[in-house]
Structures
1.
Amino acid sequence: MVGLSGGIDSAVVYALAVEALGVKNVRGILMPSEYSSIHSVSDSVELVNNVGGRYDIIPIEKIYAAFMREMTGYFSIGEWFVAQENLQARIRGTIVMTYANRYDALLLNTSNKSELFMGYGTLYGDLCGAMMVLADLYKLQVYELANHINAGGKRIIPEHSISKEPSAELKPNQKDTDSLPPYGVLDPVLHALHEEGLPADEVIASGSDPALVDRIVRVKAGAAFKVAQLPPVLTVGEHPLAPAEKCL
C-alpha cells in the first residue's frame, strides 16, 4: 500500500510497486485535507486509473479538526504552525498504519534522499512505513525515474504530477521552496557532500554559495536524529544515507 498525495514521489513509488507486485496487490490511499489542492486528488486518481488499480479516499479534515479542538487548550497548538503541519502528517501516518495492520499490508514510504538529508519529514508521520523505496534517490533523480517510467509513450504517471511545483500541502499555498533551496541547487551540493565525500570548503571552492553550503551542512547535521529512526532503505547506490544495517 502507498499513501498517494498527487505528487511525484508517491506516484513513482506506486508505479514501481505495481510493476514489481502486480496491480492487484497494490492499494493507494488518498488522505486529502482542507489544505489539499484539487489536483492532489485528481492526479492520484488518474495515476491509479492509468493502471487499472484500486484506491480509497479517507479525508482527514474532520479528524484534524477534532485533534485541534481537544489539543489547543493544552498546548496552545494554534500558535505554533509547524505543530499543526506535523499533526496532519501524523494523522495520515496513523491511517495508513491502521490500514496496514488491518489488512496485513506492507506500507511503502515515499520520502526521497533530498528531503531526508534536510529533515523535511515528520517522524511517526510521513516517515513511517515498512520500507523506504526512494530514500537512496535525490529529488532530481526521482524526476528522471518518473520520465523513464513514462518513456516510449507510456501513460502511467500523470504529466501534472511531474510538472507541478512540489508541495507538502500542509498549509495554504505551501511550496517545498518555502523550507528548502530549489532542488536544482540543493541536490548538487548534497551529492558533492555525501556521494563524493567532499568537505564543505571544497564544495564552496568549486563555486557553490558559501551561505547555502553552510546552511545545508547545519540542517543535514541537525536531521541526523531522524535518519537514525528511518525504516529499512531500498538502496540503489554506493552511499546510502542510512546506517548499513538499515539497507536492503
2.
Amino acid sequence: MSSLPNARILAIESSCDETACAVIENGRALLASTVASQMDIHARYGGVFPEVASRQHVLSVIPVVQQTLAKSNLSLNDMDAIAVTRGPGLAGSLVVGMNMAKGLALALGLPLVGVNHLEGHIYSAWIHTAGEAIPPEPQFPLMALLVSGGHTELNLMTDHLTYKRLGSTLDDAAGEAFDKVGRLLGLPFPGGPAIQKAAESGESTRFKFTRAKLDNPYAFSFSGLKTAVLYEVNALKKAGVELPVADLAASFQATAVDILFNKTMQAARDFKAKEILVAGGVSANKALRTAFQSQTEFKVNIPAFSLCTDNAAMIAAAGYYCYASGHVSTMDMDVQPTWALS
C-alpha cells in the first residue's frame, strides 16, 4: 500500500463477551476506546454463557458507542467508515455488533468494513495512543503468533492483509487450555490470569508435562498437556496429598509458554522473518511476554496490555487497512461465525 488515505474509522467489536467501540485515525492513532466487560457476569458460570452474552451486548452497544464519541470529542459525521467484527465468534453476539454497524453505516451513508477478529488482533500491534510518541511500524515479513482462548496459530505476514497460515491448533487453543487447567486446580475463571498469579509463588520445574509430537512443526496441540495435568491432579488426590496448586500452575504455564515460544522462533528462522508479532488474549501473559522480550534474535511486537484482550481499537486499525485497500463490503454483509484467515 504505497499511498494510504487519511481516514477516521469507528469500529464495533462484539464477538464474545466484551462490547467495545473505538475510533482510530489513519490506522494507528487511537483517539478513543471503550470496553464494557461481562467478565463478572460470566464468572459465576465458569465460562461464557452465549445467550447471556448476546443479551448484554444489546444493553451495552449504544451506550458504548456514545461514550466513545464523547471521549474522542468527535461526532458520527466526522467518521469516514464504520468497521465491525464479522467473525469468528459467537453468532448471537456478532449479530448485535453487526446490526449496530449496519445501521450506522446506512444512516450516515458510510462504507461498512467487515473485519476478521483474528486479523484485528494482529493489527493491535500497529496502534499507539494519539498524542504520544509514534513507535516504528512492524516490518514485513512478520511471523505472527495469534494466541487466545479460541485460537492458536502461526501466520507469515508478507504485507498488509497478506497472510499464510503455517499451522494452527489441532484441538484446544492455548487460552482454552489455561481455562480448563485453572478449573482443574480450583482457580477462578478466567483461568489465564488466575494461573499466572498462582504460578508466581510456584516451582516451574517440579512437574514435567507432556508435549505433543506433531507432523507439522508449526501446529499446536494442548489437549495432551491439559490431560497430563488432569492425571497428575488425580494421582495427587488419590494419594491424599494436598494439591500444590502454585507448583502445578507454574509447571503448566512454563510448558505452554515454552511450546509457544519455541515454535514461533523456529518458524521465524525458517521463513526468514524480520520481526515477530505476538497478539491475542494470551499475549498478556507475563511469562510469555518475558520469553519473547528476553531473546535478542528478533525484534518482537506485542500490544499494550489493554489491547491484548478483545477491543474495538484493533478492529478499527484492521478496518482502516481494509478500507484503504478497497475491501469494503455491501450492506448485505452477514456474520461469519467460522470465518478465519486464509
